[in-house]
Amino acid sequence: MTAADASPTTIGYDDSQQLLQLCHDLRQYVAAGLFLSEPEAADLGGPGRLALIHQQFRAIAELLDVEQTPARRIGGVNLTQLAGECAELVRLTYRVPVIFERAPRVVVAADQALLRRAVGNLLDNACRAAGGGGHVQLRVDSAGSEASVEVSDDGPGFGEIAAGTGHGLQVVAAAARAFGGRIEVTSLPGSGTTVRLCLPVGHPRVRSA
Length: 209
What we know:
Blueprint: H1 13-36, H2 46-68, E1 75-78, H3 79-93, E2 98-101, E3 107-110, H4 112-130, E4 136-143, E5 146-153, H5 170-178, E6 182-187, E7 193-200
Parallel strand pairs: 2-4
Antiparallel strand pairs: 1-3, 4-5, 5-7, 6-7
Helix pairs in contact: 1-2, 1-3, 3-4, 4-5
């Protein structure tokens, strides 16, 4: 078969992986929205419930917008607020306590959509690892010119692996590369896992005309 005979709708491996990741991320928001529409969510109160529903739709719109416009839009992102929103999402979709230790306000130069996906994947992995009897700890901090978002679980751990390989860390590694940061993974069998995403603090530099 020649190149001219190939179907224009053929999906390559990279495209397939990207589609799977997008479906995975969207499934989290859909699951949260379905929970919020159930009678069990009535104890959240009317205004609080509507605010959470709005938050899920806003995140979905942000995610789809980025898929249609792949170019990164780097800006000042409130990491503390974003991490809190991601914690609210996983609390709606998992029965795992998520303890959030927040800094007053930490701003990093990043693409908000990609950073949200990275933190969301960290929390999703941690909740899965913690299981029904465990818990997850989320921490946002800053020191000097570096900020960090750290997610820990007390699950079985996945051993010593190379940073950015497997276990949903590809998106996290991509965020670290895109924003000039790094990831650190600490994991021992039976001792849980801690993943730290470190990023430069502050707003992006604006070039003068």
